[in-house]
Design a protein that fits this description.
It is a single chain. The protein has about 400 residues and is an alpha+beta fold. The chain has helices at about 30-40, 70-80, 95-100, 110-115, 120-125, 140-145, 175-185, 240-255, 275-280, 300, 305-315, 345-350, 380-395, and strands at about 20-25, 45-50, 60-65, 85, 135-140, 155-160, 170, 190-195, 195-205, 215, 220-225, 225-235, 260-270, 285-290, 330-335, 355-360, 370-380. The strands form 3 sheets. Strands 9, 10, 11, 12, 13, 14, 15, 16 and 17 form a 9-stranded antiparallel sheet that branches. A 4-stranded parallel sheet has the order 3-2-1-4, sandwiched between helices. A 4-stranded antiparallel sheet has the order 5-8-6-7. Helix 1 links the parallel strand 1 and strand 2 (about 45-50). Helix 1 (about 30-40) packs across helix 11 (about 305-315) and helix 2 runs parallel beside helix 3. It is globular, with a radius of gyration of 21 Å. Bound molecules: adenosine-5'-diphosphate (ADP) and magnesium ion (MG).
Length: about 400
């Protein structure tokens, strides 16, 4: 994308003559936080999401309630908006192609298409010169037979539409692999070798159409049952010998894609002394997300610019300056599990703790495993942020970390 600078409050940049409006495909929590950031800068916003009560739709100036591929819905979005972004990678790439032909669209349909298909994604990562888990593509029964023994035990992942650990099966033997592929309806998959993880981390960068690329310090992430549970974000959360190459690799991936927008890359840190670490190095790329990321929510409260502010800037063609983190932060994801028997968690007790920032996404149904919100604890140092986050976790009935 390279387009005009879209100043907030200007008129005549949309097709509709109204003040500059930024659009987002998808109405989830990431779209909601994008809308908040855009509005606080003075933009109007439009959300396209079929769900009539989506988290972003609830807070946007305009909410177009059609399917992502609905031609009328897309036409309305283009008419309303000066530029369009996306908040989840499973937006049909065809919709972004349509939008991109008429309006600046970032990230591009091409980048999203790569990130939404693990087979294309792995090929791109290899092109970027970053190590990935040893893997095989499984598209036909013959591919199962050809799997080398060294890939087992492994994780079979559907190439498309997986998230929060969904569409993944851990397999120890060839028999389990065959059964798992059958269970996944024999759709295209990748089988990854199960790596011995010491930790997981992620890096978020924002890249403009002029190639400027800024980044946040890497986040240390704890997953439970395939879902992000805790993010620790502060200097010293991991050795610099890991943090620096993780940032460099993320920028290489963004540059190789000629990416415009906010990009998150997830990494595995391999166990010291393991044969996998000897073969691959300490850092292995897991996957990328062509959008702001759950592990970057702390930037709302702990940095002078959040990942959503940077998403707005990249979309509007505004300057990018390196964000600065002013507080140590620990983020806890608030899953539907915390609403025991439908009861609202004791937010008043949690908010009595110093440096707590509650973000709820406006979702009505607190289903198990559903991301209902997050809590960020900010503090002057990491020890304090962790201590308060542990107290908050205890109050909420979450496991310690
Ligand atoms: P999702 O798209 O659901 O986030 P991921 O591929 O990131 O899927 O996998 C979810 C989690 O499963 C990871 O964060 C990690 O904890 C674990 N996992 C995934 N792949 C591997 C692997 N090859 N080796 C070890 N653990 C893995
Ligand atoms: Mg992941």
């Amino acid at each position: 994308m390279s387009g005009p600078t879209l100043l907030p409050g200007a008129t005549g940049l949309n097709g509709d003559g109204q003040q500059t409006t930024l659009g987002v495909m998808g109405g989830g929590q990431l779209g909601r936080m994008f809308v908040h950031a855009a509005q606080s800068m003075g933009y109007f916003t439009a959300v396209l999401d079929p769900d009539v009560i989506s988290p972003a739709g609830l807070v946007s100036h305009y909410h177009i309630k059609t399917d992502y591929l609905d031609q009328q819905g897309l036409a309305q979005l283009m008419q309303r908006c000066a530029a369009v972004t996306t908040e989840f990678e499973n937006v049909p790439a065809g919709a972004l192609v349509t939008l991109g032909a008429a309006r600046p669209t970032a990230p591009s349909a091409e980048a999203v298409a790569i990130a939404q298909d693990r087979i294309k994604e792995k090929a791109h990562l290899a092109r970027s010169g970053v190590p990935v888990a040893p893997y095989a593509v499984i598209e036909a029964a013959a591919d199962l037979a050809a799997v080398p023994d060294a890939l087992l035990p492994g994780i079979l992942k559907t190439a498309r539409l997986g998230y929060d650990g969904k569409g993944q099966v851990r397999v120890n033997s060839r028999a389990e692999l065959a059964a798992a592929w059958d269970g996944l309806k024999s759709v295209p998959c990748v089988l990854e070798h199960m790596l011995p993880l010491a930790a997981e981390c992620s890096v978020i960068v924002a890249r403009g159409s002029d190639g400027t690329c800024v980044h946040f310090h890497p986040q240390l992430n704890l997953h439970r049952a395939g879902i992000l549970a805790v993010t620790q974000a502060y200097e010293g959360n991991m050795p610099l010998a890991l943090a620096e190459p993780a940032v460099t690799a993320t920028k290489a991936i963004a540059n190789e894609l000629n990416y415009v927008g906010v990009l998150c890359v997830e990494f595995f840190v391999l166990k010291e002394g393991s044969p996998e670490r000897a073969a691959l190095g300490a850092l292995v790329v897991n996957e990328m997300a062509p959008r702001p990321h759950n592990s970057g929510h702390y930037t709302l409260d702990a940095c002078d610019q959040s990942q959503f502010d940077l998403q707005v800037r990249t979309l509007a063609g505004l300057p990018l300056t390196q964000p600065r983190q002013h507080s140590a932060a620990v983020m806890l994801n608030l899953l539907g599990d915390l609403w025991v028997n439908g009861a609202t968690p004791a937010w008043d007790q949690v908010l009595a703790l110093p440096g707590t920032h509650l973000h709820l996404y406006g979702k009505l149904k607190a289903n198990k495993g559903r991301k209902m919100g997050h809590l960020t604890v900010t503090a002057a140092d990491a020890a304090q942020a962790n201590a308060v986050a542990l107290q908050a976790a205890k109050l909420l009935g979450m496991a310690a970390f």
